[in-house]
Amino acid sequence: MTPAGAAALEHLSGTDGFTEGDTAQGKPNTFSVSLAASRIQSGFENRIQCRVYKVKDKSGFPLLDIDFEPRKEKPGSSTNRVVTYPVATYAYTNGESGAYIYFACPTEGDEGKGSFVKASMFINAGQASAGSTGKDRMTVLNDVSRAVARELGCAAEAKLPTEIPEPLTG
Asked: Could you tell me the pTM of the whole model?
């Protein structure tokens, strides 16, 4: 993560100790940008999630869960109450726990060609620090999304900034 992404993650969680946890089979969960990119290209059903846990938390629930999936079309504007950001094709946060970025990136997999990647992040609101913000969530998701877009070779067209601007609404 970049320094800005790491700072946002620490502000979001109230800690600086994280782990990816273990699978149900006792093997470590490992997320890598290159694996996420290859799964995006291998098919619309083959996705990889990044789950981050607080080191000292024993609940078994992740602090956050990031997912990437190819999309054939860009989304329409949400009719729900969301806070939008001038990032990528469409980016928004909702409520206390969600962040979404749709970025332009050609993909090709088992289900055909796609033109966009949807990045989503859900945070366990019960583990978030009281002062965390939607901008913190957007900063963390953008940071990981930029790395995935670079790996996919679509960083320029993805239009993911190095710093998250203030939201357009909210």
From this structure: 0.87
